[in-house]
Amino acid sequence: MLARLSRMRFPDGHDGDVAAGVALARAIASPGYPFDEPGARAAVERELAAGPSGVRDTRAQSRQTGARWSGGRLAEVRVPALVLHGEQDPLIRPSAARDVAAALPGSRLVLLPGVGHDLPAGVWPQVAGEIRAVADRATPMPRKPRSGR
Fold first, then answer.
1. Which one, of 112, 60, 55, 58, lies nearest residue 89 by Cα?
2. Which helix (H) or strand (E) holds 53?
3. Residue in 83, 84, 79 with CA at minimum distance from that of residue 135
């Protein structure tokens, strides 16, 4: 997937940047759901308007691809956790989600059929329900006393 993306060529300038962004969105889209090209185009336009874009920054993309986890140990997480992953993610294999879920005590793994690396609107209700279920399982943390008052 990454090699295919790196071979794509687009003209310089705004129109080429938009075309590159839409092509990237299509490449990581969910094959089990319709691709929302107008929505993808609008998102790319918003990103470009917000400032420098990573659409053509291959060095930034390489850094992301090669990044290692630098956070704490997942086994130390003591709150309910939900691991969502697309079954057809072209960038990160579902086995990675299984590994993350296995490292999180008591977590729930949900593999989303037909979903790629994006989160299509068609699964938003399911995702919201899964998040709600995790929130409902959570026990309130004791409040820390305020200091200095």
1. 112
2. none
3. 79
Nearest to 20 by CA among 6, 35, 31: 6
pLDDT for residue 36: 93
Phi, psi of 109 (to 5 degrees): -100, 130
With bands split at pLDDT 50, 70 and 90, how would you rate the model's confidence at 11?
A: confident
pLDDT tens-digit profile of 43-93? Answer: 999 988 887 655 556 666 667 666 776 667 888 888 889 999 999 999 899
Alpha helices (runs of H) in 1-123, residue ranges in sequence order? 2-7, 14-28, 37-50, 58-66, 94-103
Residue type at position 43: A
Q: In whole angstroms, give the CA distance from residue 26 to residue 145.
A: 50
Cα torsion through 120, 124, 126, 130, rounded to 10: 120
Using one digit for the tens of pLDDT, what is the confidence trace for 90-119?
A: 989 999 999 999 998 889 999 999 999 999
